[in-house]
Queue: 2 jobs
Job 1
Amino acid sequence: MMPGPASPPAHFRRGATADRHQARRTATVLELARGLCGRALDYGSGWGDLTARLAPQFHEIVGVDADAERVEFARAEYAPLQFSLCAAERTDFEDQSFDVVCSIVVLPFVPSADRYLAECRRLLRPGGTLVFMVPNPDSLRMMIRRWRGRPVHGRRWGGLTRAEVRAFLVRNGFRVEREGGFYDPAFEGVRNAGDVVLSLLSAVAHRLKLSGRWSYVGFRCQRLP
Ligand SMILES: C[S@@+](CC[C@H](N)C(=O)[O-])C[C@H]1O[C@@H](n2cnc3c(N)ncnc32)[C@H](O)[C@@H]1O
């Protein structure tokens, strides 16, 4: 049988056991979002599994994504949650529609980081919260890529350090309240000798609880007036 358009890995399905990366991402996001409530937007909601995990704590949560296949899947899998398709740089919601906007590993994929963050800000009420996650630019893997002159995350997002990501949030009208993150453990996805060395270094950093080298870093930020 031809695979249908909506054929993500099985672990994105409702009730499926999350894979290890997905479980760590969910736990970190739930921790960053702890205590938040009201009306939330999952901006770049992907297959919808994270939206569904966040849903119980909010009065209402909706997901939007620029990928029609993902939106279609999320709608079917996680009904009655609402998911809709958005344009690359704009959503249809009115200004200040949300108390919370979650943006989890979306920034590396958008056409303009500045315009995407401006849209997050537009959608939040003053004092509202942005829960924002990116692959950590200061992880060992990313640092080595930069050092070797390789693009870190496409042309637009490459080259920033974690401190510059923080500064980028501040410059765009957010106050960073706290940060969280996680390591994708060593030896997952090892393909060559370089990966083995990286994995060993990551394992040491993980053991020493060096948060600066997390694989992914999240920021809980308040939208300033
Ligand atoms: C790495 S996935 C993360 C999905 C989800 N947030 C998660 O953590 O599982 C990135 C998602 O961003 C979406 N995306 C990329 N560009 C976007 C844009 N301009 N506006 C909204 N979503 C976008 C992609 O379609 C994809 O679903």
Job 2
Amino acid sequence: MLCFEVSVNDKQPITMGHKELAHMSLSLSYTPEVSSLNLSSFGGLRKVTSRDDVVSWFESELSAGDQISIKIVESLKADNPVTPNSTKAEKQRTLYCAFCGSPKTDDCRMVVSVLCICEKCVALCQSVLNNG
Ligand SMILES: [Zn+2]
């Protein structure tokens, strides 16, 4: 099967692939407002019956100077993907307030919807509405 062998900064490569794969992709994204630079992997399995059939192999936070290597290889085996919701990377993904840019921390809760809003900004909006 065709696989993507992905390595960041010459570390141990991850081989993306699956025998039941319908598609797979890599996404390099940069969001300057929150200084977020990420390399994400996604795959869809042929029998998609729920969100759990959308898989991921890794997610990597990057910074300037990092080097990504992608090699397309024929391989009989690949690293096992996981569903994004159960990956350690997903659990550790940082959420940022859309108003002030603060990251979610253990001592600052976040309202998460289409946008994320930290509790400090919620309190600020509440005081503006109360005093306005
Ligand atoms: Zn905020």
